[in-house]
Structures are given as C-alpha cells and as structure tokens.
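Support reply, case 0932

Customer input (verbatim):
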Amino acid sequence: MAMLQSLFLGIIMFFQSFLMPLISPDIPLAYGGNPYTPPVITAWLPIVEDGETDYVIAKKSGEPSIDSGVKWLVSFVEEMTGVKLGVIDAASADINDKLIIVGDLALAGGALDSEAAQLTDEGFVKKVVDDDIFIYGIGRGTMYGCADFIEQQLGCRWYTPSFKVIPKKADAAIDKNLCDVQNTTLEYRNVFWAVIDRDPEFMAFHKLNSGVHVRLGEQYGWGVQYMDFCHTMERLVPASLFAEHPEYFSWRADANVWDTQQRCLTNPDVLALTKQNVFALIDSNISNPDYKIVSVTQNDNGGVCQCANCLAMDAKYGGPSGTNIWFVNQIADAVKAKYPGRELWIDTFAYDYTTPPPTVLVPGENVPRDNVIVRLCSIGCCFTHPIEDCGHGRSEGMFERFKAVPNNFADYIKGWSEICEDTGAKLYIWDYTTNFKFFAMPFPNLQVLSANINFFIDHNVYGIFEQGNTSGPNGEFAELRAYLLAKLLWSPKADAEYIINEFMAAYYGEGAAPFIKEYLDATAEKAMNTGHLHIFNRPDGNTYFSPSDLRAYDKLFDSAEAAAAGDPFRLDNVRRSRLSLRCYKANMLMGEFSPLNLKRLEESKKLFHDMVMLGITQMEEGTPISEPYSTYVWLHRPWDWADMDAWLDFPDESKIVPLDIEDYKAKHQ
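Our regenerated output:
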C-alpha cells in the first residue's frame, strides 16, 4: 500500500512541481502593508531616569477598562525599569506635578480638543502636552491607548500569552512631541486561534474585542459578543421536533424525503418558533451589555429545503440567499419592536448555498434590514493567492487548477457590500487561516493575510472573524499567525513583513529567525507558483515541494536549530515549527519517511513523540490525537493517524482511543 501511495504521490508531485511553473506566471512574494518607517525623534521626554521618576499616573475613576490599562502601564514600566509608578485619581491631581493622565480629558485644558474630535468608538489619542502625557480614548479606547503606549513608546512586546519581551534598563524616555491619533476600521475583531482565544487579557491588550471560548468582560470594556454563534437553526428549531413535525424541516425532492439537515423557512410555524427562541435567548442575556448579536444561521450542510413553497420563494427572491434574508428580516423586525432602544443585531450567514447574493431584490422583503448582519464565509476560496486575484476554489479537480476561472467570491463580496450599504445593514466576514484536515501541515498563507483583510475592508466590511486551529495550542506557525492577525485587524495597513520579522527574531532568536524566514519565503513562493491552497485538502491536494526543495528546507531548519542551541525556549519553538515540514514529508512518503528507508518506522515513532511533547493535541479538527496501535498503523501516514477510524484501511476501532497527553509526557520526560 505504501509503495502504491508513494508512486501516486510522486506522479502528482512531478506534475505540480515541475510542469506547473512552466505554465504559471512568476508571482512575486509580498506580505503587504505600508513599509515601516522608524519614527524620527528630535527631542526626548524622560519618564524614568537612573531608576527614579517624578511622574505619577492620574487616572479617571469608575471605568474598569481604564483600570486594566493603568495596571498594564504600572506592570510593564516596573518590570522594565524597576520603578513602580504611583496611581492617583485624576480628580485630585495637582496640575503642577508631572502626570501621565489616563482617560481624563478635562486636565488637558482644551489642548486635546482637536484630536479628541477625531475619535470614533474605541479610538484613542496619545499626546504630550507641556511634559504631561495624555492617553485618552472612547469606550475601550483608553485601555487600547495604554497598550499601544507600552508597545510603541516603551518598546515592550507581548507576543503570546506566556511570552513577553520587556527591555531591562534604568531609563525610559519617549518622544517629547508625541501626538498619535488612532481609530479602528473594524467594529468587530476576533482571532479564533486557540493559542490566544482562551486568554481575554492578551486579547484585550492586542485590541481584539470578541472571543468565542471566553468573554472579555467588564474589566476589558465588555466587547462585541454573539448570543449563540453559528449554525443556530439546529437549536432554534431543534431536530427533536422532527418526529411530530417533519414539515418544519427540509424537504429533499432529490431523495423524496423530509430530513433534518435544514429548516423549511417558508413554514409559518418555523418562523414563529424561531422568533420565540430568539426572544428567549435575548432575555437570558439581557443584563450582559456585550451581547449585541443574535445568530440566526443555517446548519452546516447543503440540504436546503426543496419544498414547493421554498422553491417558489427562491425563484421570486433570486436564490436561497434571498429566501434566507426574507426570513431573517422578519426576525429582525420582531426584535426591534420588542426591544426598542436596545442595540441588537440579527446575524445570518452567506455560506454554502446562501453564499451568492440574491439576484432579484424586492425592497422591503429580501433586502436586509438596518439591524441585520450578513456574515459572508470565505470557506471555498484559495488561500495562497489574494482572494481578489484568484477564483480557484475548494473541491476542484487536479486539472481545473490550471484553468482560468471566474472569481466568483470576489463578485459575491462586491454584491453583498452593495446590498448592505444601500440599507444600513452590515457585512461581516468569516475567514479561514489553516488546513482543517491537518493542522500541522504547511499552509503558506502569511503573504495573503494583509491583502485579504484590506480587500474586505475596501468593500465595506465592518467585522472580521479569523478562524484557525481552535482545538489546542498547536498548528503550523500558530503563534505567529495569531499575533499577526491581531495586529492587522487593528491596523490593516501595517507592514506585515516587519511584524513577522520582529516576532520571529524574538520567538526563535536573532540567530535562528533568518533561516526560518527564508523557509517561509521559499514555501510561499513555491506554493503561489505551483498551485492553490484550500482549507480541507488532503496533503496530496496541496502538493508543491520537490525532493530538492525538501533538502533545502531541512538545511534551513538545521541551521536554525544550531543557532538556537543553548536556549531551550527558542530551540523548542524552532523544533515545533519544524514539525510542519516533517509532517509534510511523512504524509507524502518522502525523505526519511520514504518506503525505501529501512528506518521509516523509527522515524514515524519519533515524529509522533515530538508532536506530543511539543504541544500537538489534535491533528485535524474535532479529533483528539490517538497513538497508532500497531506496526501496521505506524507504517501509514500521519494523515491516517489523524482520524484512524475515517482514513485507515481496516481500522481496529476498539484500539482507537484518545491519548492521555499528560500521562504520555510523564512517561517520556
């Protein structure tokens, strides 16, 4: 079996790696954003000199998010210089003292009026006025301003929840002419990578205002949270009703049966029940000010109702998306009537069969209301080329990859943007940033993150949800991706390559980082010029590395490991990132994992051991990691280990059990 797999993969690799470049344009590598320009400082304002300070923080009282920002200022300055800044109430501040004034505009005496007038919700200004330092913002903006001051003025970094870089020195000084105004472009910013999504403080520090696994809460200024989150029709009209009311569900004319895949949106009882359960959801969260969005979203399948009424409405409204908007509009109207004066939005998907915008618009019926959010999902796109430039999509055949295809998704986002802007509805994006079929496989997409975010924003997108590996602190370059995405959601025009290089120098070490950056550049260039990248592809569906490529990449990681030797933290980071290359070779039966290598079994066991010890808890979405249970399984690819029951030939299901990771680590320390 392995020999046949190897032969098949070799044919694919030869075609894609050697022939594709001959018929493809040479696409230059660019990470996006405006080039970083170091600030020019002509006069310095000392805050701490020789381990002493005359400054005290004067903060506006009564706002927990401001308290959080002040706490960060005190903590970072103390860890940096050894000096703990005092904190007083701004209302009792002596204007003759040297002050860092946080959240209070009155003490500026009008000197910040021009900047404050420019601020929108969550925006902030940092400004020096007569040697006093002001940090002031709208809503969560003051807290964000404190975090930004720590990063940009003090030079500190918080790269992962457990890794900060704080320079140690007796002096701290900032630009005496500091005046910086920042506003957000996106009202909703969520990076759904497990490496950060469980830490609300880290998320708030990086100006993310929503979470899935955690809420930000009052101490971080609340946020923008969903009541339920996705595929909610499963719960709004539960499948338990099917036996008594099959007519609530989807009629599948192709199979001549009712089934529970979706709901019949033209059934008036379905509408009434959905309204009832939406009201119940709102009432149960009525005291939480960050719960502003109710999700009314289709289930995760393509089983749209094909009953006569739904087909007729689809025809009237230009497709299933038109029928869906008609349905959601009635929920939105009912919510606005029942909860006057409260900001509540009804969110729905443009996903699967509802992705294309309706081709027929009937004002007042299937044009989204001004309290509706359409969440367009990029699930079918190519992710190694900018979405704006590439129309290739998920599930296309090998030879379709080499054809010119229309860019449907780019047209969809333009269409939805126009529809929403005309009525005051909002367009959000659900975007994807990893390979869900094998988290640790190479997924060269760093070069498109900036381009895609800016494309979305250019088409009137108000919120972006960036989904990655949500199942544990692992995945290919997870820490880097999560950090970069957080920075780009706040500052879409930031120099992405500068952020990447700075992160890598800290995370891998100055000596190792250039080798890993060269690896990232090389894999991105090869991916862009030899194929397309999708989020549910088998390893052999995203093939682009030749044997000579792999040898070169191994040399780069050898050099990176040598440079990081002696620094256990950074060496582990290098080795963790190298897992993606090793998994690629193992899945493609190449290099040391070739069937011709007599030590292949040993290499497979070593790979699994290193994956567990370096933090891999899941290889694919939704399946806990399990240890291969026999030599027969060990000789298969990690792709087969990831979900042995689904992918393995002749699995012994009784022996497929989730690994007790802590027990494994204890036994193999």
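We compared this against your earlier run and they match. Two observations from our side: The chain has 22 helices and 21 strands. The radius of gyration is 27 Å. Please reopen the case if you see a mismatch on your end.
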